[in-house]
Amino acid sequence: MGLTVSALFSRIFGKKQMRILMGEDLFFTLFTQKKKKMVFPAGFNVETVEYKNICFTVWDVGGQDKIRPLWRHYFQNTQGLIFVVDSNDRERVQESADELQKMLQEDELRDAVLLVFANKQDMPNAMPVSELTDKLGLQHLRSRTWYVQATCATQGTGLYDGLDWLSHELSKR
């Protein structure tokens, strides 16, 4: 009953419920004014935030190698994926590309919209969006909606532009 009433209110008031995967540090940068120490919990955190008439259920799936195999347990019903790449780390970009491609091959994520935050664009040797797009192999994604947004998380540059794009794409569904 509660779910039905919630769905009814969402339709009346125009809010949509969306499930998004993103890292915790990005979550705190986007949705709080507090600085958070990099402490990785044993489990995953779940937060709900509202942005542009969409309620995002955000699953913090952190990037530690040990917990990456557990990510797949959180993929079901995910409509959007925010993948953050360090644009300044040329040595690890292939590792990021491999992880992204593994995730995108998961059946539960086949319909998820992909937003890539090309972070650390303030650094002098940061890869531009076009180069990062190429290195991640995104141009080969024919059946997926995706976008790469240049960002600098410490300054907040580009973060809301990316969320605006994601909100717009998810509102079409």
From TrEMBL:
For the keyword Nucleotide-binding, the answer is yes
SMART domains reported for this sequence: ARF, SAR
- Listed GO biological process terms: retrograde vesicle-mediated transport, Golgi to endoplasmic reticulum
The answer to whether keyword GTP-binding applies is yes
Molecular function (GO) terms listed? GTP binding; GTPase activity
Sequence positions that bind GTP: G63, N119, K120, Q121, D122
Name any GO cellular component annotation: cytoplasm
Q: Which UniProt keywords apply?
A: GTP-binding, Nucleotide-binding
What NCBIfam families is this protein classified in? small_GTP
The record's family statement is: Belongs to the small GTPase superfamily. Arf family.
Q: What is this protein called?
A: ADP-ribosylation factor 5
The scientific name of the source species is Mus spicilegus (Mound-building mouse)
